[in-house]
Structure formats: C-alpha cells, structure tokens
Design goal:
The chain is mainly alpha-helical. Among the domains are: 57 residues; 76 residues, SWIB/MDM2 domain (MDM2, Orthogonal Bundle). Helix content is 55%, strand content 7%. It has 11 helices and 6 strands. The chain has a 3-stranded antiparallel sheet with strand order 2-1-6. α6 crosses α7. The longest helix is centred in the N-terminal third of the chain and has 30 residues. The protein is extended, with a radius of gyration of 36 Å.
Length: 275
C-alpha cells in the first residue's frame, strides 16, 4: 500500500523531527512509528508496511548526512600538506616585556616631564635623580612583596580538609542498587532491534568490509564511509557523489553513485539473520 503524496509529506516531517532529536545508534523503527501515531488522529496500522519503508528511507538519509558531516570535520582538521618542503611560518607571539624594559619605559616617562627650558646639565641631574627615585620605589615594592606577612613565618595555614563523598559498600550496592545498576548498563547498550539489528552481508559487501559477515545497517554505512575517506573517493566537484573503486563497484554496480542512492542499493546487500 503506497502513501498519498500529502500523507507521505506529513509523515516525512514527523519522522525527520524525531530522528533529528534522537541518537541514531539507539533509535528503533518502532519508536519512530509510535511517534507518528502520537501525531495523527487515526490508526496507522493499515499503513505499517509503507511507513516502515519510509522510516528506513529517512533514516538512511540522516545516517548518510551524519557520515558526510564527519568526513568534512576530519578534512577540516587535517592540515594542508607542505609544498616543496616549505612550511608556512606560524604567527609570532608577542614577546613578554621583561622587568628591565618596564623600568626603562617608566624612566623615560618620568624624564619626559622634566622642563626642557632648564639647562642641559640641570636636566641631566634631574633625570638621574628621577631614575634613582624610581629605582628606589621599585626596590621597595619588590621588598614588600618578598616580606612575609605578620606571623606568617611562625604559623602555617591549616590545610583545608576535602570532604570525600561517601561510597556505597559492595554489599550495599549488590543489595539495594543492583537493579538500578543493571538498568543503567542495559540502557547504554544499543538495542539489537530495528535499525541496529544485525544483518547478513552479501558476498560482495562482505569483501568490501574486510570479511565481515554480519553487521547492523548503521555499522555498514559507517564502515563504507570509512573506506570512502581512507581512499579519497568523494568527487571533488560534488562531495555527495562517490567515485567507486573496484571493491565498491562489485556492490553498487556503477562507477559513480550518489550518497543517498548508495544507501538504497545497500539494502539489496543485507539479509535477515534466520533465528
């Protein structure tokens, strides 16, 4: 049963909204379908098969976009190779001003206020006096900083005691918190249902993914994009197009494939694992 265009467009909006707010490694097709049911005022059960296909289609698009974004991030983080051994010089950091230079600058400032109308000899004497006064003031400041505070040499500040959070004993954890601990561990593991359910790989896909025989859809997409990045197979003029090497041609049956079309063809190389 196919979906009418207006219904399909409405479902796409709901699905995209759910996927945009979800962890793609943990979301399931059932959760998305329940989200659609919560947004409409009629029973969507008769459309279950068509909705499942639409959810998988939108999931593949979101997953591909995520991999493309990771690819762009890696490329941006990789520095451009140097040409002919030349490395662009890094911008020089300003050299911190040392104390003698500070003294010289301050001394010049003091000398600037000396009346230029005075005889040269007198001006020189005033400048020397000003330098001497400045040196004495700077020395006094240094002594003041070095001098210990009153009672500082005889008393030491009491060390601040850090409060250590109480830890539950092993017995208490096993007794009272065992169920909570198990629940938290269970929540962190991706569920092997829906999108994350392991699937059998075709022979060509298994060869592309270095002998893997069973992976989930997201894992397959991630590994394929890893292969694409390692072999630089994105079309420089349009990064959404992938230039297939020999291993990828065996799976996708073409020399160049769009990233979204790649996910559709990938479905033809995944088979349910018989329980």
């Amino acid at each position: 049963m196919s979906l009418p265009p207006e219904v399909r467009a409405n479902y796409i909006g709901i699905i995209d909204s759910i996927l945009a707010q979800s962890d793609l490694s943990r979301i399931s097709e059932k959760k998305v379908r329940q989200g659609i049911q919560a947004k409409v005022e009629y029973d969507i059960t008769p459309q279950k098969a068509a909705i499942k296909g639409l959810i998988l289609e939108r999931f593949d698009i979101f997953n591909a976009r995520q991999q493309e974004l990771e690819s762009k991030t890696e490329q941006a983080a990789t520095p451009a190779p140097a040409t002919n051994g030349y490395h662009a010089p890094s911008p020089e950091r300003p050299t911190p001003v040392k104390s003698p230079a500070k003294r010289e600058a301050t001394s010049e400032t003091v000398s600037d206020v000396i009346d230029e109308s005075l005889p040269k000899k007198k001006r020189k004497e005033l400048s020397v006096d000003a330098d001497a006064a400045l040196a004495a003031r700077l020395q006094a400041e240094e002594d003041k900083r070095a001098r210990p505070t009153r009672g500082g040499s005889s008393k030491k500040a009491a060390p601040v005691k850090k409060k250590t959070p109480k830890k539950k004993t092993a017995v208490r954890v096993r007794g009272s918190d065992e169920s909570d601990l198990d629940d938290s561990l269970t929540e962190k593991k991706p569920k092997n249902t829906g999108f994350n359910k392991p699937m059998n790989l075709s022979a060509a896909l298994s060869e592309l993914l270095q002998g893997e025989t069973a992976l989930s859809r997201p894992q397959c997409v991630k590994r394929i994009w890893q292969h694409i990045r390692e072999h630089d197979l994105q079309d420089p003029s349009d990064k959404r197009n992938i230039i297939c090497d020999e291993a990828m041609r065996k799976v996708f049956k073409q020399d160049k494939i769009h990233m979204f079309t790649m996910n559709k063809v990938l479905n033809q190389n995944l088979y349910p694992i018989d329980d």
